[in-house]
Every structure is written in C-alpha cells, then in structure tokens.
Amino acid sequence: MKNMxxxxxxxxxxxxVVPMVACGSKTADAPAxxxxxxxxxxxxxxxxxxxxxxxxxxxxxxxFANRLADHYPGFVKNDEEDVTKGGKIGDVEVKFTIxxxxxxAYQNNLDSVLPGNADAAADDKVDIFLLEADYAKKxxxxxxxxxxxxxxxxxxxxxxxxxxxxxxxxxxxxxxxxRGVSWQACPGVLIYNREIAKxxxxxxxxxxxxxxxxxxxxxxxxxxxxxxxxxxxxxxAVDTYRVFSNNVKKPWVTDGKxxxxxxxxxxxxxxxxxxxxxxxxxxxxxxxxxxxxxxxPGTAFCYFGPAWLINFCMGNTPDNPEDDGxxxxxxxxxxxxxxQGFYWGGTWxxxxxxxxxxxxxxxxxxxxxxxxxxxxxxxxxxxxFVNNKPAMEAAAKDDxxxxxxxxxxxxxxxxxxxxxxxxxxxxxxxxxxxxxxxxNAMKAYFDGSSSKEDALNAFYTAVETKYPELSH
Length: 472
Description:
This protein has 472 residues and is of the alpha+beta class. The protein contains 18 helices and 11 strands. The protein has helices spanning 4-11, 63-71, 105-113, 133-140, 165-170, 194-201, 206-212, 216-228, 238-245, 262-276, 288-292, 307-313, 358-370, 372-382, 389-396, 412-421, 431-446, 452-466; strands at 54-59, 75-77, 87-89, 92-98, 126-131, 188-193, 253-254, 257-258, 302-306, 333-336, 348-351. Strands 2-3-4-1-5-11 form a 6-stranded mixed sheet, with helices on both faces. The radius of gyration is 22 Å and the shape is globular. The two termini are 40 Å apart.
C-alpha cells in the first residue's frame, strides 16, 4: 500500500498503536451530516483557578490531539492547520509532546519523565499520557506509582457503566483499581474477499460465509478448499495469531515463570500444518507481500481485523486513488464474526501522578469516554468504534453506518457481539515482549529453518534476555 510506510511510524509498537483513523485521514464512510453534540458541556469547575495553567499531554501521534480538539467543548486550537501546536481550554494552555513509538522511544520518554513528575515545575508537570494495551500494565502496576486512580479523580462506576468491560480490564491494576479510560473499543472480525467467497463457497453472504469459519476445525476445512481452488486462506500465519492470543486461559508469566498457554500452542500446530500445506505463508505483518492481498483480484481469502483495518488500511484511503487496484474501492470485502472474538488496538487515557490539573483531566476523561452524545459524534466524524454500548448498538441498527469497503454492509453488530466475548483478565506486564518474541521464534519453525524445540528455546532465550527476572 502506498501509504503503509508512513502508517507504520504511527501504528506499530509491537501491535497496533492507533485506532480506525490511523491508516488515513477521515473517511467518507461516516454520515456526512453529523453535527457536534450540543448537549455536551464542560462542567463549570472543569478548570478551577487553583489548578495548573498548563495541561501537558504526552502522546505518540496526533490522534488524541485531534479527538480533544474536535470533540471536547471549549477547546480552541492555536493553529487550525496543525493541532499538535496545542490550544486553550478556558485560560489553560494545552501542550502536546509527541514522541513516536519507533524503537521504543515513546516508552523511554515516559520512563524518564513520569517517576519524578510530582516534583516537576508546575508548568512542566505531565497531566495526561496515552497508553496502548501491549504495555499498559507496565505503567499501572509500576513500583513507582505514575498513574492516578480513576476513582480518585471523582469518576464513578456509574459514569463508566456503558463502557465495554475488556477496555477496563486493560487498565485495571493488580489491586483491582482502574487507572485509565478509553473512548474506543477495537473488536475484530474476519474480513473476506467476496469474489473468492462466491467462487469457492458459492456465496458471499456473511451468514453463509460464517458457516465456513464458525470454529477452527471448520476454518481449517475451508482452508483446504481454498488451497484446492488456487487460493490461500490468509497471506500469513500471523494473521490468526491475535485471535488465539486474545483467548488464553493463563497469563504469559506466573510467579516469575514463563508459561505458554495451550491456545497459543494450538496456533503453532495449526499454523505449521497450514504453511506446510501451502494454505498460508510466513510473510511479515505490514510487509509488501502482506499488503499485496489488498489488491484486486486478490489471492488470499481473508484477513482478521477491527473496523480501522477495514476502513483505513485495506486501500480505501485518500493516499490511494480509485485506480490503484484495491479491492476496497470496489466494495469487494465482506465481514463476518469468524471463529473467535478478539480485539486489536485502542488508546487509553491515563492521568499522571503529580498532575496539578486533576479536575480538568477528569472532565476530559468523562466527556470523551462517558458522554454518549460526544461519543456518537466521534463515531460519525471519525469512524472510531467507540467505547459506549448504547451508542454502538444504535449505530448497528442504522444503515447510514454502512461501510463502502464492505459493499454497503454495516458490520457494527458483529463488532458489538465481539466486544461482549473478549476476556482480557489474563493480561500481564510482559505481554508485549512475549507476544513479539514468540511470533519471531515461530516464524523460523514455520518456514522450516528451525525445529519446534529450537524455536521454543529461542523464544525463552529472547524473553529472558529482555526480562532477566524471568525464567522457564
């Protein structure tokens, strides 16, 4: 994809950093007549006089800056063309510090500024910082407390009642305290090539396709049929990894010992069989070979991903003109629930310990993640799948939310169903490193350059080098 190298700088830090709008700018798929939520008002004491006069926000790209500028009542940009230049909320100056995630730079920056934040000069204190799921536990469970409890900000369980539970699990600490909130949820579905579905399965109807991928045994039989017809099931074995890793029964690490869940090993065995049979390959995620599947006519039957992958990464972006051969421009994709629910991506808002703007930070959190009117406006204007059950259930029943990439299909009910089945209670502090190193090690096994035993040993070695406190 022409825009993918640019996208990678924003998207990847082991997993997806950004949501639906990450792979392009705003899309025409959302209703064009959306109006701002006029019922949403900043609370009268959102920025009291005794709090700080500078709101410092640490982030890795301009995604949150755009959400704040576009949807938080009263935000005034300093520069209409460049939201990262900050703005004003009342008499409070808003500053964004953007450190890209590449080479772990964003986390390294947080590691340097957060521990001493309480002692920083008033105008230099970090007030808000953004997190993604892969490393959220690192900060909410840190030995030196660097996040505020959501309850200490005055945000109640009742305020958060309409949010999807898994988004809370991501930022719940070891003691059960919530330490972050998100305006988005990123449940995933199976995204399939309609022409291939009609050719091999006899129908591209989502309900009929679902019968062919309803569970992993059925999925594997369909993979055999795809291969017999001259297609691969997926471009790469990594396409299915996230679905398996989101459905584990135990964490990667227990009492300092590395453990590999049975579901992860099920992925290994299934993937090896598929690679050996020519039903999938070993291409890298976001690489040229993987991206080639987005082009017509396509040789791979399906991908797995959330709404942002469909709308912004599969070819339907402003940087990819309609004659670029993408399947998306012809509405050539379809969506169905697939074998298991999973998620991919999302951004969480955390209040930094030591902030001198607790009231304003709390109001930003409440407005952007609890206010249904504002969240509905985010769906309409930005095509985010928002973290609000009533808003998304309503959108799922509204034909105006159909995706052009999916040929006019509205898949939002599938995403809602997927959110309900996601269980991240087994997330841990080491997930990012373990998931990355496991996939790296298994690629050598899949392509035949390593035995399974050697690949597992390579995984253990890599993880124990990265985290010397661990063993297996």
